[in-house]
């Protein structure tokens, strides 16, 4: 069985599907425009594609002067565009819902590279979609991200009772570079399954609802069933579904949590400008003041360290 045309209920698989996406710092109205824009390395020319329909983008893409290495990089560009497109959870779930059927970009306009026409073609678009689908279905790694002091500001309470006040957790400001780094990993690295893992006050009626609200606002790409909570004072490993695996990575600002985790898996300390003054943590660390792409790269290096 195969899906042989990206039309009707499967139109979302097509690059002509109208869906806004961010790519290379620009916002495009569809993935066809994003792909065609990368045929040139001139930023001004790339920006011309940001407001174009798929049809307009394809026409303009035929007229611009191609970058000299286009034939060598075009497959990688298409894959990167698709990763940006399917960073949207709704579209990703629709792709997963196609199951194991073959995806074939059948067409009548003679494209035998990205699709299949009259029974002939390499179907590179279909193959890339199936590659992403397989990665989304079976991610190789798991990243667990602490909240307080890691993606959300560390705000010491003047009185312990303040932690029980309504609005305390919901009002925490994000460490935006860290939030953006986790979003980058989510968008471009399908092999990593991301969870948040946060300690909460067991007798507070606001801790979990407000942290869920915070995540809805600042990190909506984390599915609700990937938002894990553990009572204060209990090792975080106890909240991990199926138990901690050797390749699991924890990103946290608190050395005690990291040390406990590191007995079974790998851990990275988030230096937030308040912690890290005693130098007790000697393993991997990254600062929240680094640019988002630098933080993301550092986390991914630790995630993949076991492959070295």
Explain how this protein is built.
This protein has helices at 31-37, 43-47, 54-63, 70-85, 89-96, 124-137, 176-188, 207-218, 255-262, 292-303; strands spanning 2-3, 18-23, 26-30, 102-103, 141-145, 192-200, 227-231, 249-252, 266-271, 285-287. By secondary structure, the protein is of the alpha/beta class. The protein has two domains: 2-137, YbiA-like (Tetracycline Repressor, domain 2, Orthogonal Bundle); 141-307, HAD superfamily/HAD-like (Rossmann fold). The strands form three sheets. It has a six-stranded parallel sheet, with helices on both faces. It is elongated and about 70 Å long.
**SSE class:** alpha/beta
Question: Strand sequence of the main sheet, in spatial order?
Answer: 7-6-5-8-9-10
Counted beta strands: 10
What does the overall shape look like?
elongated
The residue ranges in which pLDDT falls below 50 over 5 or more consecutive positions are none
Evaluate the radius of gyration: 22 Å
Total domain modules:
2
* Overall helicity: 25-40%
Order of helices and strands: EEEHHHHHEHEHEHEEHEEH
The major sheet is characterized as: 6 strands, parallel
Under CATH at level 1, the class of the largest domain stands as: Alpha Beta
Briefly note the CATH topology name of the largest domain: Rossmann fold
* Relevant CATH superfamily of the largest domain: HAD superfamily/HAD-like
- Our estimate of the beta-strand percent is 15-25%
N-to-C CA distance: 39 Å
Mean pLDDT: 92
Looking at how many chains there are and whether they match, the oligomeric state comes to single chain
Which CATH architecture of the largest domain? 3-Layer(aba) Sandwich
Number of helices: 10
């Amino acid at each position: 069985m195969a899906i042989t045309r990206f039309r009707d209920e499967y139109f979302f698989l097509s690059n002509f599907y109208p869906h806004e996406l961010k790519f290379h710092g620009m916002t495009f109205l569809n993935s066809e425009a994003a792909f065609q824009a990368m045929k040139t390395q001139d930023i001004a020319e790339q920006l011309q594609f940001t407001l174009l329909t798929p049809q307009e983008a394809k026409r303009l893409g035929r007229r611009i002067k191609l970058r000299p290495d286009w034939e060598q990089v075009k497959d990688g560009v298409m894959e990167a565009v698709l990763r940006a497109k399917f960073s949207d959870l709704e579209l990703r779930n629709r792709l997963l819902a196609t199951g194991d059927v073959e995806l074939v970009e059948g067409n009548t306009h003679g494209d035998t590279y990205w699709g299949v026409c009259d029974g002939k073609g390499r179907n590179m678009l279909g193959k890339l979609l199936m590659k992403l689908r397989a990665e989304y279905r079976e991610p190789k790694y798991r990243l667990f991200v602490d909240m307080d002091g890691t993606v959300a500001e560390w705000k010491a309470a003047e009185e312990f009772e303040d932690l029980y006040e309504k609005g305390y957790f919901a009002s925490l400001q994000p460490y935006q570079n860290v939030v953006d780094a986790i979003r980058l990993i989510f968008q471009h690295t399908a092999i990593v399954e991301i969870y948040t893992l946060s300690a909460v006050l067991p007798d507070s009626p606001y801790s979990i609802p407000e942290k869920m609200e915070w995540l809805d606002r600042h990190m909506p790409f984390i599915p609700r069933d990937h938002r894990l909570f553990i009572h204060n004072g209990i090792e975080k490993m106890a909240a991990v579904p199926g138990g901690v695996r050797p390749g699991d990575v924890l990103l946290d600002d608190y050395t005690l949590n990291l040390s406990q985790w590191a007995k079974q898996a790998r851990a990275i300390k988030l230096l937030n400008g308040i912690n890290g003054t005693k130098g007790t943590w000697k393993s991997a660390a990254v600062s929240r003041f680094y640019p988002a792409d630098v933080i993301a790269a550092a986390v991914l290096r630790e995630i993949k360290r076991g492959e070295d």
